[in-house]
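Structure tokens please, single chain.
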Amino acid sequence: MKFGCHISIRGGYLNAAKHAVAIKAAAYQFFPKNPRSLTIKKFDKENAALCKEFSRKNGLVSVAHTPYPTSLTPLADKKELTIKSLVNDLEIADACGASGVVAHFGSHISADDPLAGYQLMIEMLNSVLVNWEGDCKILLENNAGKPGSIGTTLEELVQVRNLCDYPDKVGFCLDTCHAFASGLWRGDNTEELLAKGNETGYFKELVAIHFNNSKYPAESGKDRHANIFKNGHITERQFAALIGLDALKNVPFILETPSDEGVTHKEEVRLLNEKWG
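Here you go.
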């Protein structure tokens, strides 16, 4: 199993990779640029290349995450900027050797047309990927929300990928807290999740897992991450069942848990490696 966590690039891309190795993480996630802005970044390509080579030598895998303002269903005046920002994210992540850039599934944009949000997502993906030739993929992340909300089912994620003009350039990232909050995975239906993941082909395209506990019960619709072994509603037994799935044995589990609530990411990675690594 490859366990890791989100790591800051404050000291550069190479330093982030070195920090991951220092805390004995086998995987990590990073923001390719300022997480609060869609501004295009002119990045240090030499530092990114060193990061890629260091990761290769150390068997380290990584994914990037789009900045917070990124939306695959943006307002009209943000559409072109969002497309350029996503391409920029792909360029940076690819240069660093990351396997994908995580982007949250979109949202409803019309009360009259329930398909409008999905259609805009597909249009956005096509615009971003039409000229993209790198190895890095866009990874669609399942949403947290009340059961039935947009982006909470495997069928939706798979269908958007299938209808995109460039499905080979699109993969998935499963967030365990989001899945728990939406009722996709309630902790006690792991076999059902496995069957649906295999039936839809979702697991074949799953590149990363955001490994998070939940501060609220299943189907609460609330996206509040908790530490794996502390203050969460998902039990160790339920996590163990998920981790034990053969379909996930080569997928990195990356923490996005609180690091200021009594356990650091370094300590949490150590505990994960001891228990399930």
